[in-house]
Each structure stands twice: as C-alpha cells, then as structure tokens.
C-alpha cells in the first residue's frame, strides 16, 4: 500500500534504497540554486553540510561568510565578506563559475569526443581534457565505442594552454600517454596523493621545437581541496578525491590523454564514418606497401613528411633502396588506435603493432604515424617507432 504523507500518496521507498554518493560539486550547485531562489537558510544548511564533509574546500568557507553577511545587507558578488585581495577573490569567483558551468554542460549521451576515433582493446579508458572549461572527462571503451564515465574539475597552467617552451607556465595541447605512476610516499605534499606523468614533449612537440618537461596529472596539498582554474605551472591538477578515482581507471603506458582547448563532439554515426574512412586509408597503405610498387606506396606520404633523423628525400631514397632488395613483403597490423590531434590541423595519431615479413627480414615493432587530411586524401606526415 502506498504511504500517506500530508494527504498525498507517494510510492513506498524500498527498504534498502541506495544512498547517493557525496559529490562536492553537486552540493555546490544546490547551494547556488538555493541562493538564486533567495532560500538563504537552505543554502546555509547545504554549505555547512559541504564544509563538514570537505573541510578544506576554501570556496565553501567563502560562500558561508557571504551567507552570514547576507543576513544584514545584500551581497553583490562572491567574496563580499572575505578579507582577501582582489586577485584572490577573482580566483574564487572564476572557480565557482567554472565548476557550475561544468555541472550544467554535461556532454549528451549520444555524443562522443571527436578525438577518440578508435581505441585498442587494451585501452579500457581514455582521458580527454578541456582547458577552456577546466574539465577532465573520463571515457571507457565499450566494444570499441567510447562511453562517458565521469568528469572532474581541474586546474591548468597560470598562463593558460598551448605550451611551447620551458617555464612558460602553460599546459600543453596534444595527444599524450600516461608514462608512470608516482605514489604519495615519493613526492612532497604539494603533489597530494600522487602523480601520473605524461609524455610531453611527444614526437610532434619535438619536431616543432617545443621544450619543457615534467607535465603531470597530480593532486593538491593535503590542506587544500582545489585551486583556481589557472594556478599550476603547466600540470593538470585535480582534487585528491578525484585523482584517487582516476588512479583506479588508468593503465600506465596504455591510457591516452588528449588535451585540447575546446572539445569537438560527434554523433555516433559521424564518429563511425570518420573512423571507417581513416581505416580504409590505412588498409590501402598496407596493401600498396605489400605490392612493392614504390610510387604507389610513397603516394601515401605527404610532401611535408618528416622523420626523426632524415629529410623526406633521404627517407624516400632509403625506402626505394630497401624495396629493390625484396621479392615479397607481407605486413599485418594489429592493436590499432586512432586519436585525432587537437588544433587546426586535421591530423590523427595512429599507433599499431606491425608484424613485418619479407624474403630477407622478419620483425615486430610498435609504430606511430601522424596522418593528415590533405584535400580529400589522408597522407602520412610523420612515422616512427612508438
């Protein structure tokens, strides 16, 4: 029988209804919703609850001071009751706005980031970082399709994104991979519960003369819950609570981290169309290599092609010489991943295991190529061992 409450009928709650997990960001949204509705007592209760659960959340303490002051006079902005500097108050305001925008602009379930064109079977998850919104998105690989798992607020470099040189205090833009895991015991408290280094500068960064090192995903000091949207020296900084969750979802040397200044979203149909188009280009390249028709094979390489130690002309001459020694070639590709590179260039990072056999050589290597769309054709602009 339905339970009667104040003359209205409500479905009876299950005896063991699951409790919703505590989420500081969602509680922050409830506080601002209550303030907007002029329900200041409710906002205060929510704020006290948030501080009780997350006592080092400085923004919550700032809001509580504002709510106390609001009992005597109207408030014009966040931080009206705080004694901090104008710069500190602006940092808090930006953090509040960025957090709320991230909560209210969740990606639609039928859209996927354009960057995750194809994940390998062993890439169970992928990280996509949006520097414009200070939001990190975690996706899982479900039968080859990316599916949204979670998203977290983060802090980026003091000078924004698009890192180009050592010490510029910018967060890099590009396709990277997690290269290690540093536990709290090996780090100063500044890095919180740990760190996940990434491979900046990658091959493309190095070819373009970008310098710097030590770009990590890491936590915050133990007395800090979060920082302003732009407060790091270039690293991606999450709350310790969120970083612990991320640690459980990534795999060293496998999980990709795509950092972009704006995320492009695709419908699953458009995503599948782009993925199939590039797969066809890769398969044609493989077949043309096996054919030993050197001009056909080289037609897949851009006039702007670059290699680590050779000019394009040197590389072409070497390929032609090697091909002249072959009577047959068989190539098998496996574990192919395709990650679109953020930025203006229509470029995709393709990584795969290459099983090569010929009349005079056999080897298996992990190879990385950068494919760029030139007109209606995909062309290889960089190639090297991964």
Give your account of this protein's structure.
The protein has 386 residues and is α+β, with helices and mostly antiparallel strands. The protein folds into three domains: 20-104, no CATH class; 112-263, L,D-transpeptidase catalytic domain-like, CATH 2.40.440.10; 267-385, Nuclear Transport Factor 2, Chain: A, CATH 3.10.450. Helices cover 29% and strands 30% of the residues. It has helices at 24-36, 40-53, 58-69, 86-104, 203-207, 240-247, 268-290, 294-298, 312-324, and strands at 3-5, 8-10, 111-113, 116-118, 125-130, 135-142, 145-153, 156-157, 174-177, 182-183, 194-197, 216-218, 230-232, 236-237, 256-260, 265-267, 301-306, 329-340, 347-358, 362-374, 377-385. It has a six-stranded mixed sheet. A hairpin with a 2-residue loop joins strand 20 and strand 21. Helix 1 packs antiparallel against helix 2 (40-53). The radius of gyration is 26 Å and the shape is elongated. The model is unreliable at 1-19 (pLDDT under 50).
